Amino acid sequence: MKKVYLIGALLSFGLLAEAQSFMRFEDKAFNFGAKVGFNATFPVINSLSINGKEAENIDIEYKVGYLAAVFCRVNIERFLLQPSFSWHRSEGNIRFSIPQSLPENNMMSNTSATTDLLMMKTSSLEVPIMVGYNLVKKGPYGLSLMVGPKLKYNYKIAYTVESSTTHVEYVNDNTPFGVNIATGVGVSIGRLFFDFVYEFGLNQVESDFEKVNNPVPEINYDINIDKRTNVMSISLGVLF
Q1: Which CATH class is domain 28-239?
Q2: Could you state, in order of their start, the residue ranges of all structural domains in the chain?
Q3: So what's the pLDDT on residue 216?
């Protein structure tokens, strides 16, 4: 039994030493790292029209998405330059009322307006270039502020319109490129770090939609959206 306790103690000390060695982080001029986390999109709808008619009673439903990224970091005293390459999957819903003059409402009787749902799903590759300043940089602890542009390539944009009478899926053929402005706060303990980033999107008009399916051919949605999309993300990562 004593041997078991001795072996257990040695293993515990060994694991503790390995953990301390892993957490020990040397201040270097160049680092690279990786992170994973969650995001939430906040679309700001300036206008939404269906077949040329303005939608009414627009309500946004926020959903949680996912992200993964790799990056390199150049450290110059308290300043840092951090270009990254990241993958994002984001979702969101828009509820709205169909104007009465649309064909779908003409098919229904004894109703004033229907609340329909526009579901958005976007997969994107992004290249943020962040410039930061370390407010705290002492021992294993760090606190930094960051700001910079983010270049986006939306390689898949899917929209689904759901109502009481139909379910139509679309893909968006508008330009897939975009630019956001990102600001963030980073907290680090040794090699581990936690990032909170908020992005401010630029206005974008989307109108070139292609149907994937339409179970009711006589009903056609000609969608036009003028919006900008803000994004909040939280991630946990490690530096090497």
Answers
A1: mainly beta
A2: 28-239
A3: 57
